[in-house]
Amino acid sequence: MRASPLGLLLLLSACDPAAIATFDIHPQPGHVHIDSSLVLDATRTGQDFARRYQLISRQSKECASGEYSGNDTTGGRRLGLSLCLAKSRDGFRYTLVEAITFSWGPKGAALRDELADTLRRRYGDAVVVNITRK
Hints:
- This protein has 134 residues and is of the alpha+beta class.
- The chain has 3 helices and 6 strands; from the N terminus they run H-E-H-E-E-E-E-H-E.
- The protein has a 6-stranded antiparallel beta sheet, with helices on both faces.
- A hairpin with a 2-residue loop joins strand 4 and strand 5.
């Protein structure tokens, strides 16, 4: 049985052994609008990052715009790394999860930081970033 990223996120948040980063793009009056072109652009951006960081595409209902997974390491241990792309109720969300760990591995940290910088440059104040375990 394959665990969904949101189910995994809920399980991990209860146990707290994960590094999680969410990047929400929310509409801003007069600036960013949530429409099909934004969803397409946000999806392409996520796909580009997944390709650069060698994450493999997976099927997911929760991640309607794409789910990507791969591996990272920290302290000699292998970690699971996943990126979920989905339109949210009032915008678009990227969810990056590194499990099962209490710290980010080098690949996850680099992806997290580069994605944050790229989204802030592209969408400015419309991006809300929430990162655990810096």
